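Example for reference:
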Amino acid sequence: MKRSKTSKGWMQEHLNDPWVLKAKAEGMRSRAVYKLLEIDKKDKLLKPGMVVVDLGSAPGSWSQVAAPRVKPSGQLFALDILPMDPLPDVSFLQGDFREASVLAEFEHLLAGRAVDLVLSDMAPNMSGNAVSDDARMMYLAELALDFAQQHLRPGGNMLIKVFQGAGFMEYRTAMLKLFQSVQSRKPDASRDRSAELYLLGVDKK
């Protein structure tokens, strides 16, 4: 199938993206790694001994950063609908987070552990229809928030990717009911034109 000018332009931009080139040079799995690194540098989210959950983990760049930082006694559990190459000290489950059976299997992996930090870089496959994409993104975000409510220990934190579209303010309000504060983060590695924003829920009630 012939590529459109739009997809050719995106591919060209992607290949010339300084964050993509940096990731390749430094052996990182994707440019997304620098989003988490910047936020962690500011907010000191990752600490030794923590139990961390990474939702929407493939190709594994956030797990790649987080797993070494929670050693020696910490644990990292990752989940994605896509396959992910193994990483040291990461327990990975491939499956659709929207399915109850997958969630149950992931909870079985956790084996009752209280979670210190939930990371979610999940996003739906983009259709180009803003209304549809926003709705599907918010659904994933709501599922992640429900997971945090069930499994985060009191005082735990959550970092989640959302879109600044329909439902954004309502979602932020919902986070405020669960956390003492909610802060916005737009890391340098996030493309300027992208509607994505990261919300940091601090100190679960």
About this structure: Residues 1-6 have pLDDT under 50 and may be disordered. The domain at 5-204 is CATH 3.40.50.150 (Rossmann fold). DSSP finds seven helices and seven strands in the chain. The two ends are 52 Å apart (CA to CA).
